[in-house]
Write a structure and sequence with these properties.
4-stranded antiparallel β-sheet, Jelly Rolls, 8 helices, alpha+beta
Length: 243
């Protein structure tokens, strides 16, 4: 796991002492809303979606954890029950490290503690960015911003993107209806910015995506239509404190 690179072997032994592999079928819950945190999870293969409820009760995808990612750490450190829930996106393999093992490891490894803190801060910043973009940007801006973020990740240097979840899930993440997300992708294909085949996307014209982002920021979110109610974003504010 990326966050554990460089960790002393003795600390890895502490983490591995009671760690276990757990396999989940598609849509199976990893943990439920209101459950006690049992430990931290690392994604080996597949993906996991973090879910929250809109005020009117509609489920909303808040974040997607891909291979190499971790989740559940906020509940581990706070000890509070989860205010959200998680589901496997497809067949997913996770490593579960019990809470006691993680707390013992960070107690003796200051570098690991700092990396954990950095990772949590990075998640908070991503959530803040998502709230800003999804509440103020048009559908085209949200999609362009998301694709550019995926494109800038180190493991994707060739302008190739594989969406980490079905398009319906990505649409929920961006606070869009599936129909609007598909329409924006079609428009970007017609404009020559993208080539799309299922969940595989190749960015053919990065400058065009950047132009969409630059021209659309600050416009009303309703101007593109097809968005979910913006109050669906309100639960995100609490996630900077709890999972």
């Amino acid at each position: 796991m990326p966050i554990l690179r460089g960790t002393d072997a003795r600390v890895l032994d502490v983490l591995a002492r009671e760690a276990s592999f757990i396999r989940f079928s598609p849509s199976a819950p990893v943990f439920d809303r209101g459950s006690e945190p049992t430990g931290i999870f690392f994604v080996c293969s597949g993906a996991v979606r973090l879910m929250s409820n809109c005020p009117e009760g509609r489920p909303k995808v808040v974040e997607i954890f891909e291979p190499g990612g971790m989740f559940g750490e906020i509940g581990v450190f706070t000890g509070h029950r989860y205010r959200t829930w998680t589901q496997a996106v497809g067949t997913t393999l996770l490593i579960h490290v019990p809470r006691t093992g993680l707390l013992d490891a960070v107690a003796v490894d200051n570098a690991l503690c700092r990396r954990m803190l950095t990772a949590v801060c990075a998640r908070i910043q991503r959530l803040i960015d998502a709230i800003s973009c999804n509440s103020a940007g048009t559908a085209s801006v949200r999609v362009a911003s998301y694709l550019l973020d995926l494109l800038d990740r180190p493991e994707r240097p060739d302008a190739g993107i594989v969406l980490p979840a079905p398009k319906k899930t990505i649409a929920s993440l961006l606070n869009l209806t599936p129909e609007t997300f598909s329409r924006v992708l079609r428009n970007l294909v017609e404009e020559g910015a993208l080539a799309v085949s299922g969940r595989r996307i190749r960015v053919r014209n990065r400058a065009a995506l950047t132009a969409v982002l630059a021209s659309g920021l600050g416009e009303s979110a309703e101007s593109d239509g097809g968005s979910m109610p913006l109050n669906c974003l309100e639960p995100l504010a609490g996630l900077v404190h709890k999972n």
